[in-house]
User: Fold these one by one.
Assistant:
Number 1:
Amino acid sequence: MLKYCICVSTVCLVAAVVSRAADQRRCTVIYDGVATEVGAPSEGSNDLWVTMNDLKNATRFVVKPQGVCRDELCFPLPKSRKAEFISKKGAVTWFNLSAFATLVKQPTVHDEKNGVWYFGKREDERGTYLASLKAPNFTLPDVNGKMHSLSDYRGKKVLLVTWASW
Amino acid sequence: MPGWQKFYHDINDKNFEIISIAQDTGGAKDAAPWINAAKPEYTALIDDKHLVTQLYNMVNVPTAVWINEKGMIVRPNEVAYVDNRYKAMHLIDAGPYLDAIRDWVANGDRSAFVMSEQEVKERLKPPSPERATADAEFALAEYLYKNGKGADAIAHFKEAQRLDPDNWNYKRQAWALSDAEKDYGTSFMKEVQKLNGRPYYEPRKLREPKKQ
């Protein structure tokens, strides 16, 4: 049976009470480099279940009839395995974010002690430049905090050179 | 950095830009003193999440990429020293590389040092399947470190190093945030000695031998 951890949303708190949360803890999801607090349950497995609200807040993905979607992107869930991804407990529907990551070949690592989950780059996002040879864009600050993107320099030759203080 | 500043100043071509990027988890705290001392006229950015290391599958510094006016890679990752300060260690003479850049600035895509798409593709190595997980472990470790959980970060830095063992950025950055001897049982100099003559940098090949 699922035991839900403390989280910020009212819906999730209700779920926590309903399911007699014993192993309550806060969880942090880092997705696309952005950290979001979520109310993920701890059920003694290595999976991370989040509410539909938290799924949207943390990842911008939403579950639709055609699959798990964000903007134009949609990943269908295998019909026969739907229960692995979606679980309805009382009034709350939970989504297995770590199982979804495995489905879309997204490396997922986590720190058990601090309840932090990091979702890396999906397979379809990795190394796309190897075929196109288009230099991957980035946006980073200078010493004054002003942001610069590689794409700002289109029309010039750019020598990109890395260094480090260490 | 003072070397790149002089090089850039001397080239003085409005269609050529150097974008130097510090790969430093400590961000401006660690990188800004060097940048402020060099007073670069070129673009000096700070990357406190090692994003460029990940995006371009880099494994050490200094690493350079040539990008043409259309935003295409015309020379992929290679070692890029601007002077011979550390030549005794890596035996790489900076001179021919700087001449190659000057040739590129002067001649653009006609430069003999600009590679064809096929040559670039032959040099670009697809990252290992483990690299993506190593990147995630490193990023998780950085997050923990920056949130006051430095001790908990170590296991994840170690895992990143295990998954991508040739990645010196992931080793040296982690060691620099720690007492490397105590937390990792090693040091940069010890690891260099372990190379036992194997090169620290992938040997630089400025021009591919002409195909028959």
Number 2:
Amino acid sequence: MPEPTWRPVPHQHQGPHGETAADAHIYSPQKHNGVFKAAGLRTFMGAPYCPPDRHEIRATGAKIAFLGAPWDQGTIVRTGTSSGPEGVREASTQYFPYMFEYDVDILSFFKVVDCGDIPMVPGNNARSQDYMCDYVHECLAGGARVILVGGDHSVPIPGARALSRHLAETKPEAAMGYLHIDCHLDAAVDWGGIEITNASGPPEALKLPNCAARNMAHMGSRNGLNPKDWMDFWIDNDIPIIAMSEVVEKGIVPCTERIMERAWEGSEAVYVSWDTDSLDCSCMPGTSCPECYGITAREAIQLARTMGRYGADVLEIAELSPIFDASQMSMKLACQMIYHYLGSRAATLRDKGQTP
Amino acid sequence: MNPAKAFTHLFSPLGDEDADNYRSPGQISFLRAPFVKIEEEALRAAGRPYAFLGVPYDEGNVGKPGSEDGARDFRLSSLDYFPYWFEFNVDLNEAAIDCGDVSMPRVNPDLAHRKIYEAVRTVLKAGLTPILCGGDRSISIPAARALSDHLGESAKMGYMHLGAHLDMSDSWAGERNLTACALARITELPNLSAENTAHIGARNSFNPKDHFDLAKERGLKFVPMFEVLERGIDTVLTEQTERVWSNTDGQYLSFNFNVMDSSAAPGVTATEPGGLDSREIMRVASHIAKAGGPTVYDITELCPIYDISNATSRMAVAVILRILAEIAAINGDQVADDLRRPGWNH
């Protein structure tokens, strides 16, 4: 077994003057000009770029792969989410990968790699989704868990398919969980005859052979863009929804614990699909369907930290729309949702004496 | 539930020949409602409980302009919603008509206010509940007067306002019908007493001393924002809806969405920090619905050019629809349990 080749990109965090210490990226700059965000190649978290190929990923030893899914032609609302991955990458240049709350360097802990954006076929949802599925599957097959950033909320359709396929190949008998955190119930069995829009993630997940209703849940639903057949889907399949009113009443942490426990009950892999319109529009204007009465920024971080205690094989953040953002607050929040998830995950594993 | 209605609008659009993008309504109206002229007979014939009226008037404003576009964006934002509300299992599809905008003259405030008055009177006379969307806060002056006259001198009227400012200027630079004078004029209505008047959310320093002096003189008991924070929105609303709804024959409900914190409602003319968050305004909506809802609604001071990502108009629409939906649910006007989308097989 050759030595893993993963190492941070020198110019990303160490500056052009060549900091030599291996952990220089977690400290304030010493040698270079102090503009810590001056990037060469812009990658998520300053992670090294790695081609989305299972052998290359395995060779680096990466345990987290960032993938962009710049696709917004599956949307039934406004477009603009194809810029989502770039929005998150840009926001991530304003952060250090060291998180004091967990005393962990998430970049090195997970040997994060950025596998770039998935290629898309304009005008062709089916082919684009096949690409998304193949790329996510390739990262999973390379031994990495995936941070998948959309893209509209049709992204979980191929995303969950990829996890399902990977699980079937590695553990044929195992079950997977699927969580949907969203302002919208997203349960159109079809929308205008189309089954693969951004309103159909959960019904498509339920069609997967190893994904059953008992490991599915929904959290954050509210307000009036939820037609009746969507509600009927959840009721008829006996899948619990934790509507926003319940989150407000009971608190985000116990609600998150409930859905995470349901997803992991007897299953061996979990897909988490987190639509950013689950957040309140005051902290998340940069989404395609901003909605009031949502999860606040504080709660989003608590949600991410709680989720980190349980883990997920694919964490997908959807519907980011940088052109509608204000002062980059949405992109920075989305970025920190991922960072806190990873920070909490790393601390959880470290405290148990485990590696990712 | 009305068996004669078609219910396809509750569901995701069907495919093939019936394929439809729900955001392309053909015409832009409140909740995709049909347009009906402001004429008593036509309004009566429509047979629906609510009438939406745009009031694109901002010549009464003393701050920044822009609220004349409020109704336009309110309509647009209403198209982002379904008439179906899962929380209440209610269908609002045939709840409203849209009367279009009240035609507004330029540079003639007296005439503008008279037209607003006449429009509201006509709608009330036809037996519908008007939902006015401004426009600046001064539109409440003729609209509240219309309700007052509609009820008649012997009846009692209730009035509730949510906003950051008291608007109790007896006159402002010599003018008596500007936004800052709204509550001063409304508290002069003959059938509205101080004990049936509520004002919730006042804060910060766009409330000059004469506002308080006049409020005191008229015995107005308002609930400032600090009191809301201390006692909680539920306690305050329980008490204040009681003031406005008990023993009154008609109620006027007025939202200036600067009652919200500036983070929750940037698209208003006078943003104020320290206000309600969107969860609290949803509680407010619920209390109002439980009180039975008002006889006239108004929404003023929406200012789309300062909005971020349409968030404020959407919030305003969500608040109004939530009230209508909960009222419908309380009235038992729910959708049948066994109703499913055509071809449903899940």
